[in-house]
């Protein structure tokens, strides 16, 4: 049955953009907000926040999934401007030289939990060609929860365990396998993307979603969608088909790279 869209949620989710040009997601609770990744410049990140009237002063911390620049490009300047700590795994800290670039860097390893802005944050291991990549689950005291997994070549057992029972999900839908195979990328890059240390395909993401679907799931977003090897309508169709196959009727969102969108939404924002 369709869900009641009038329900008030204690978590507010704003995707500032997701893709190879930059990634950032704002997770807001009753006591402030947490920014996951800062792959845009500090100026662009603040501009995108302002489009949804989000005061930057609400941000209490920045969490980093891994050291690649499409996730870290603006973190040094933004952390300094907002005077907030940056959390990352030890491998990401080393590979990204975060301890040298940022005044307040704190460790958060896969399997660990911490509390930020009234949210319980749990890190879990992902599988990517980075030093020590992680994803995150956020739990609010009222029961809402959000799981984010992106830049992973496989849906790891740690991710499956950590994201069980989430109210909202953001799952990478990087490429359509046929489009990637027949597309313009060189062979080495195709091999890297499709490997267990690359990015999730639409098929792999659908399989992950089927593992995580449950009656309490309220909305799902497709993340890190390739401009070359995927299309938003394919992702939205894949999400809808997966959700329908388990008897749910909830909003799905395909997050674009070039503009922010809130979740949940009744339609794609790509």
N-to-C span:
26 Å
Total E-strand runs: 14
Helix content: 25-40%
- Characterize the overall form: globular
Counted up, domains total 1
Gross CATH architecture: 4-Layer Sandwich
Number of helices, where a helix is a run of at least 4 consecutive DSSP H or I residues: 10
Task: Describe this protein with a few key phrases.
10 helices; alpha/beta; Metallo-beta-lactamase, Chain A; disordered N terminus; 270 residues; 14 strands; seven-stranded mixed sheet; single chain
Could you walk me through the main structural features you see in this protein, from its secondary elements to its overall organization?
By secondary structure, this protein is of the alpha/beta class. It has a single domain (12-263), classed as Ribonuclease Z/Hydroxyacylglutathione hydrolase-like (Metallo-beta-lactamase, Chain A), CATH 3.60.15. 29% of the residues lie in helices and 25% in strands. The protein contains ten helices and 14 strands. The chain has helices at 42-51, 69-72, 75-82, 90-95, 98-101, 157-162, 177-182, 187-194, 202-212, 232-245; strands spanning 12-17, 24-29, 32-36, 59-63, 86-88, 105-107, 113-116, 119-125, 134-140, 145-149, 168-172, 219-223, 252-254, 261-263. Strands 6-5-4-3-2-1-14 form a seven-stranded mixed sheet. Helix 10 (232-245) links the parallel strand 12 and strand 13. The longest helix is centred in the last third of the chain and has 14 residues, at 232-245. It is globular. The two termini are 26 Å apart. Residues 1-7 have low confidence and may be disordered.
């Amino acid at each position: 049955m369709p869900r009641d869209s009038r329900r008030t949620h204690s978590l507010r989710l704003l995707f500032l953009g997701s893709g190879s040009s930059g990634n950032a997601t704002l997770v807001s609770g009753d006591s402030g907000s947490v920014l996951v990744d800062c792959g845009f410049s500090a100026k662009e990140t603040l501009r995108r926040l302002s489009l949804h009237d989000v005061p930057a002063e609400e941000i209490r911390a920045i969490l980093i999934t891994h050291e690649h620049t499409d996730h870290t490009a603006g973190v040094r300047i933004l952390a300094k401007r907002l005077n907030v700590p940056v959390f990352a795994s030890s491998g990401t800290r080393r590979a990204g030289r975060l301890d040298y670039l940022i005044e307040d860097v704190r460790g958060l390893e896969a399997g660990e939990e911490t509390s930020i802005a009234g949210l319980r944050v749990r890190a879990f291991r992902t599988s990517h060609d980075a030093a020590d990549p992680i994803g995150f689950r956020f739990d609010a005291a009222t029961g809402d929860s959000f799981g984010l997994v992106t830049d992973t070549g496989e849906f790891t057992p740690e991710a499956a365990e950590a994201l069980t029972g989430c109210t909202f999900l953001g799952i990478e839908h990087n490429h359509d396998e046929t489009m990637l195979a027949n597309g313009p990328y060189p062979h080495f890059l195709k091999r890297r993307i499709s490997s267990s240390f690359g990015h999730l395909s639409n098929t792999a993401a659908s399989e992950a979603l089927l593992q995580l679907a449950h009656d309490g799931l309220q909305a799902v977003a497709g993340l890190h969608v390739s401009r070359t090897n995927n299309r938003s309508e394919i992702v939205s169709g894949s999400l809808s088909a997966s959700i329908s196959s388990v008897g749910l009727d909830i909003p799905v969102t395909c997050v674009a790279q070039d503009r922010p969108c809130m979740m949940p939404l009744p339609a794609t924002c790509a």
